[in-house]
Structure formats: structure tokens, C-alpha cells
Amino acid sequence: MSDISTTEPRLAHFPVSFFASVMGVSGCATALHAAGLPGLSVIALALTIALFLALAAAYALKALRHPKAVAAEWQHPVKLAFFPAITISLLLIAVALTPVMPGLARIIWMVGAVGQGGLTLAVLSNWIGHRAFQQIHISPAWFIPAVGNVVAPIAGVTLGFPETSWLFFSAGLIFWVVLLVLVMNRLIFHDPLPGPMVPTLAILIAPPAVAFLAWLQLNGGVLDSFARVLYSAALVFLGLAMTQAGKLRRLRFGLSHWAMSFPVAALTLATLRFAALTDSIAHVWAGTAALILLCGIVTFLIFATLRAMLRGEICRPEHPFPKRPIHGVN
């Protein structure tokens, strides 16, 4: 029997999860700007835009030539959650562009916001629709569609959309609480995450870290009690994610490793902002260390992805997602 990878075009297996890389690189660009490194930030921003355009073109071509493959991803219980990564990428590009090209950032933000709202409703409709999901289908990646809405206020307030930003923030915060309960229930009371999904544990850090940044934008930059709760929650989830770091060393590289980049970027930005608001030297050093770590992670992921592409290890058929839990898989 011939290998399916030799009989099917690689484009048909181009994954929508690839857009998580745009989120990571854009977060790095914004963090570099926040750290007072505008030159490096512009370079990272240019890379972000080029990466997004390349991925968008590739996925659009996939949609034209292999619509059934796109439909299969939409029906997949895990891959479905990555579709809003496309519009979140646009919102993050708008964040990075706001200090240098606010006019263009405003246009990109509006496109991203409309798309994010539509995809959020579409994914939620799919979740509560005719199809029954099982506990094994839940992973931290489920935060992306709904909780990703808290990204919108970071640039939205500055660009002149305060009320819309409140709407997105409210939606993201509500679904963070709901999904956090579901995800923690799955992690505690059910089988461990399959190996390829372990890097997504880092996503737990992102919602409170991004919500902290968004809340500061919405309340005029005041570091109040709620802002402190959000930032502290991000640190709690950082600690939780670090307890599972040992498993990463045993994993073969895959695109799911990009799930680590944006949460680290969000926490870096939150720490730098917290340091600026409190004049805390400890947080300045922590933010600097986090920025160095972030740049190292993104650089490693870029080279690891290019190497995997050259080896033909990306855009290949995957095993179907199990319908029932597989005991002992981690």
C-alpha cells in the first residue's frame, strides 16, 4: 500500500494551526517595542507581516484547491479552535503597528475585530450545536476562539473603539472563566494530554496576562486591585505550566510548540508594564529576563520550523483524533 503522503498534495495538509506562529512573532515585536528596542521591533514586525501574508496566501490556496480538507479541519474537535488564530493575528499586528502606523493599524484592527467576532460566534455555535464533544477533545487550545477576544482592547481603545473594546473584553473574560473550569476538569480528572498537545499547556498563561494589558487600556492605565489579580493569576499559571516543562524535552518538535510563544510574549509585556507602573526593579529584571527568553524561544521555533519544513515533516497526514481516551498516553 502506498504512503498517503506520496499520493496527496502537501498543500492539502497545510494546518490552520500554523497561524499560531504569527501570534508568537507579533507578540515578540510588541515586547521589543515595550522594552525600548524600536529597531529590533520593526524588524520583528516586518517578519510578522510577511509571515502572515505568506500563511494567508497558502491557506487561501488550500481553501480553493482542497475545500474538503478545510472543512475537515473545521469539523475537527481540536483544530477548530485554531481558526480564530487568523483574526487574532490581525489584531496583534494592529497592536504592533499602532505606535508607528496608526492609520493602517486602525484598518487592520477593524478587519480583525469583525472577523474575530464572527469566528467566535461560529466556533461557539459549533460547540453547542448538534455535535457532542467528549472530555478528551478539550485542551487549553480551546481558550483561543473565545478568550482571544481580550486581545481587541489592547489596540482598540487607542485606535478609537472604546465601547467595542469593552464588548470584546467582556466576552473574553466570561468565557475564560467558563472554559477554565472545563479545561482544569479535563486536566485533573481525565487522561493526560496526548504528547503533541502538551505545549498547549502554556496557553493557560495567556488569558490573564492579556486581560491585564487590556484592562489597563480600558481603565486609563490605573493599576487597581483587579489588574493585580489578573497579573498574579498569570504568574500562578506560569508556575503550573513550568511543572510540566520536563515533558517538553521528550517531545519531537511540531507546530504545537508554537503555542508556547505567545503566552510568554503576553507575560513579558505584562511584566514590563507592571514594572513601569510600580517602579519595581525586580519586575524590570524579570521583564528583561522574560524578553530574552521570549527572543530565544521565537528564534528556536523559527529555525526548528524551517528545518522541519526542509525535512518534509510538516504538512503531512496526521492520525485521526481518538474518539475515546487512550489510557497512558502523555
From TrEMBL:
<feature type="transmembrane region" description="Helical">
    <location>
        <begin position="40"/>
        <end position="61"/>
    </location>
</feature>
<keyword id="KW-0472">Membrane</keyword>
<feature type="transmembrane region" description="Helical">
    <location>
        <begin position="282"/>
        <end position="306"/>
    </location>
</feature>
<keyword id="KW-1133">Transmembrane helix</keyword>
<feature type="transmembrane region" description="Helical">
    <location>
        <begin position="12"/>
        <end position="34"/>
    </location>
</feature>
<feature type="transmembrane region" description="Helical">
    <location>
        <begin position="141"/>
        <end position="161"/>
    </location>
</feature>
<feature type="transmembrane region" description="Helical">
    <location>
        <begin position="255"/>
        <end position="276"/>
    </location>
</feature>
<feature type="transmembrane region" description="Helical">
    <location>
        <begin position="81"/>
        <end position="101"/>
    </location>
</feature>
<dbReference type="InterPro" id="IPR004695">
    <property type="entry name" value="SLAC1/Mae1/Ssu1/TehA"/>
</dbReference>
<dbReference type="GO" id="GO:0005886">
    <property type="term" value="C:plasma membrane"/>
</dbReference>
<dbReference type="InterPro" id="IPR052951">
    <property type="entry name" value="Tellurite_res_ion_channel"/>
</dbReference>
<dbReference type="InterPro" id="IPR038665">
    <property type="entry name" value="Voltage-dep_anion_channel_sf"/>
</dbReference>
<feature type="transmembrane region" description="Helical">
    <location>
        <begin position="225"/>
        <end position="243"/>
    </location>
</feature>
<dbReference type="GO" id="GO:0046583">
    <property type="term" value="F:monoatomic cation efflux transmembrane transporter activity"/>
</dbReference>
<feature type="transmembrane region" description="Helical">
    <location>
        <begin position="107"/>
        <end position="129"/>
    </location>
</feature>
<feature type="transmembrane region" description="Helical">
    <location>
        <begin position="201"/>
        <end position="219"/>
    </location>
</feature>
<feature type="transmembrane region" description="Helical">
    <location>
        <begin position="167"/>
        <end position="189"/>
    </location>
</feature>
<protein>
    <submittedName>
        <fullName>C4-dicarboxylate ABC transporter</fullName>
    </submittedName>
</protein>
<dbReference type="Pfam" id="PF03595">
    <property type="entry name" value="SLAC1"/>
</dbReference>
<keyword id="KW-0812">Transmembrane</keyword>
